[in-house]
Design brief:
Elements (H helix, E strand, L loop, with lengths): L4 E4 L15 E2 L2 E2 H12 L3 E5 L14 E3 L14 H7 L9
Parallel strand pairs: 1-4, 4-5
Antiparallel strand pairs: 2-3
């Protein structure tokens, strides 16, 4: 079975007050650092983002899975079963 990675970067970061994905860690955006690490372990590393984040240059070049609807959990937001399968490493939720 092919193992793939999914970075959940679509949270609102309401408690922190700013987008955690855009924090700089050792000179690199956190989302890019995590995606790069996961891509080496279980490629490809997809990045789940809010639809408004998809246009942000910080996410350019990353394999994005933009939310279809705002305000619901990241994986629940992937409506297409094939997209979910890709994002979840081949696993589908019950009933999909």
């Amino acid at each position: 079975m092919l193992l793939q990675s999914l970075v959940l970067a679509g949270g609102l970061s309401t408690r922190m007050g700013r987008d955690k994905a855009l924090l700089i860690y050792n000179g690199e955006l956190q989302v890019r650092r995590v995606a790069s690490m996961l891509d080496r372990l279980a490629p490809p590393a997809y990045v789940s983002v809010r639809s408004v984040q998809a246009a942000d240059p910080a996410f350019e070049g990353l394999p994005l899975l933009p939310d279809q609807e705002e305000g619901i959990e990241e994986l629940a937001n992937i409506n297409d079963p094939e997209e979910y399968r890709k994002a979840a490493g081949g696993f589908l939720p019950p009933g999909a």
